[in-house]
Write the structure tokens for this entry.
Amino acid sequence: MANPAGPIGPIPNGQDPLAYDQARRRLFWAMPSGLYLLGSMAGDIRNLMTINWVSQVSSSPKLLGVSIENEALTHRLVDEAALFTLSLVARKDRAIIRKFVKPATDDRAAMTLNGIDYRDGPMTGVPILKDAIGHFECRVTDSLPFSSHTLFVGEVIDVALGDELIVGNEVEVLSMHDTRMNYGG
């Protein structure tokens, strides 16, 4: 789908702007990208959000970068609490991802978000997908605002492996290529 305001530049001289924009978006979409659930909370509000713009950005200290749309509920929660979790999802659980493309409904008594079980992170209290194949808990150390998104950098303060990884099984992590979804470009 083309940007309703038209292609976002720069467009090289001599290029058809619409064709160039389409090619550029297709190339961005072809880049391998994981698909995760980002947990956030502030006050009584808890959320899990589907995210794919995630990367390790440092090994010493251990830092994760997550890029969150400025208008998203998750952006506000991460900005306020300066905490987030990242749950890795198994390829076989891909249907779960679609449940978190909009803000989640929290049933705190049942410990579910949009009907999917979660647990509180042991270090932060931020939601983690109960059936995650592993998770990171992070404390935000830096943020860099852009026009559409903010890059939050979080220091990893706790990790845990899910049961399948603990026993040494090979588990395939969900990626964008496992779905018909695309984002960005």
Notes: Residues 17-30 form the longest helix (14 residues).
